[in-house]
Structure prediction request, 181 residues.
Amino acid sequence: MTGPYRTLLAGLVALTLAAGAPAQDRVFPVIQGYGGVKPSPTAANRPDPKLDYKVVFNITRATPNGAKNVSLSKVARFLNLLGEDGIRPAAGKVVPIVQHEATSIVLSDTAFAKHFPGRTNPDAELIARLRAAGAQVHVCAQALAGQGYDPSEVSPDVVVDDSALTTLANLQLRGYALIPD
Prediction:
């Protein structure tokens, strides 16, 4: 086998091995069941307990076929990575701002079922767990309007902001690091 076929086969083997990695080697020190991390105590650039972690995540990607939103799971992974080293950011210091095509992930189960008959919001549980861990999930009111959702349809675990653009600018000017989607 030569050329692109060898590269394709190697990629498929790598994906198969990664997908088959045992789940039990992942830990969930802060957000149980979401964003599991593999302990790596000797790795470089570990979380620093001397830092004041203030981070804003820009969540824009849609979720295909009712799957859980991978960008929102990244927030859980970040909190689990910090938690693995005993670091817990203060409430409100981790802020996912949801906008664009991802907007439906913040709908209440009732509103989600109204817009997507026969389905419940696959991200509702994670949003509640993030909030319980101190993260503040926000959504862009402009994106809600653009996607045809009313602010009254948003989960009570989510803050409705005037715009994601304003939230991103305000938080970065206040010293929050941006994690893009």
Remarks:
- The longest helix spans residues 3-19.
- The longest strand covers residues 55-59.
- The two ends are 37 Å apart (CA to CA).
- Helices lie at 3-19, 70-84, 109-115, 124-132, 141-147, 164-173.
